[in-house]
Amino acid sequence: MELPRHHRMRRTLYRLEGSTCPACSGRFFPPRQVCPACRKDGLRPFAFSGRGTLYSFTRVVQAPRGFGSLAPYSVGMVRLDEGPLITAPLTDVDGVDLAIGTPVEMVTRKVKDATDHGHIAYGYKFRPLVRPGPA
To answer: In this predicted model, which residue has the larger pLDDT, 135 or 92?
Structure first.
């Protein structure tokens, strides 16, 4: 992804910003211009909490071009607390027994190595929910 495109997508990539429909209250990620449920336009930006549960997951051992240094890595489908189901890389899972239903949270991490354009891409990933210890 070239730098200008990455910059335009910063709200989606760094803040997990989608859209919500004022007519039917549907919430969508990535953002939409027209509601796929009721076909109304005028959707508003909506910032998701970044929390959800693991719906499905897999481990990638042979990575595609540009992701070689990240392999092996895990990818999961996450059902956000607000409803949408999204696919995202998983992080901080070494030594963790992943299971469907595991609570997860969004974090910002490196998603792609430097390319011919010379920049490293950052974006959202999900990790098992870090629970605070007793006080």
So the answer is: 92
Q: Say how many CA atoms lie within 13 Å of 81 toward its Cβ.
A: 12
* pLDDT tens-digit map of 68-102: 777 888 999 999 999 999 999 999 998 888 999 99
Tokens 């919430």 correspond to 27
Residue from 20, 41, 37 nearest 29 by CA? 20
Residue 21, classed as helix, strand or coil, is coil
Cα separations in angstroms, 5 against 9, 10, 19: 6, 9, 19
Nearest to 80 by CA among 31, 122, 126: 126
Strand residues in the chain grouped as ranges (E): 17-20, 27-28, 44-47, 51-60, 73-80, 85-90, 103-112, 121-128
Indicate the helix (H) or strand (E) that contains 13: helix 10-15
